[in-house]
Design goal:
mainly beta; 13 strands; 8-stranded antiparallel barrel; single chain; about 0% helix; AOC barrel-like
């Protein structure tokens, strides 16, 4: 121990994250940034009407999806996502909630505020559409209170069955990666 430090000011090096910052005035950890990754699915759900949610022309089509998966910091989770689409393949004003098994919630904006997401057609044996859009983590409850973060989606939409029929409650498979700051 250095002569000018007392015991409670010393933070062992192995307890500090490489990406954490240290406030040199108080020698306390001020925040920790770490990787965020979530693998999950969502399915279109028509139980919510979205009355009053989509009011900005041309983004008037409400889309509500529910699903689940696994993720870092979350473990097993359920998810609900709502967003506003136009008659093409663009969307905005999305928001969602990851709910961990213990009930803690993590809030997300998808796409990031002010961004218009674009869903693109693809040639793939299972999926017909793809989107890669920025998202923002925006607080939550329990262990997610006050967190921030961001990342990018990698999402694939399965709209049609093997016979070419539209799947009303179609599924989207997602892998979202980024960072979370506690």
């Amino acid at each position: 121990m250095l002569a000018c430090q007392d015991e409670k000011e010393i933070t062992p090096q192995h307890e500090l994250s490489k990406t954490s910052t240290l406030d040199t005035r108080s020698s306390e950890l001020t925040h920790a940034e770490s990787a965020f990754k979530a693998r999950f699915y969502t399915k279109r759900d028509y139980s919510e009407t979205g009355d009053g949610f989509c009011t900005e022309d041309p983004f008037l089509n409400f889309n509500y999806q529910v699903g689940g998966g696994n993720g870092t910091h979350l473990g097993k989770f359920d998810i609900v996502i709502s967003f506003c689409g136009n008659d093409g393949f663009d969307y905005k004003n999305g928001e969602g909630t990851f709910t961990a098994a213990n009930g803690d919630e993590l809030y997300v904006l998808i796409p990031s505020e002010g961004v218009i997401g674009h869903i693109l057609p693809i040639v793939h044996p299972k999926y017909e559409l793809f989107f890669e859009t920025p998202f923002e983590l925006n607080g939550g409850t329990g262990r997610f209170e006050g967190v921030t973060g961001n990342g990018i989606t990698e999402s694939y939409v399965d709209l049609f069955d093997d016979e070419g029929n539209f799947i009303l409650e179609h599924q989207t498979d997602h892998v979202w990666t980024g960072t979370i700051v506690h």
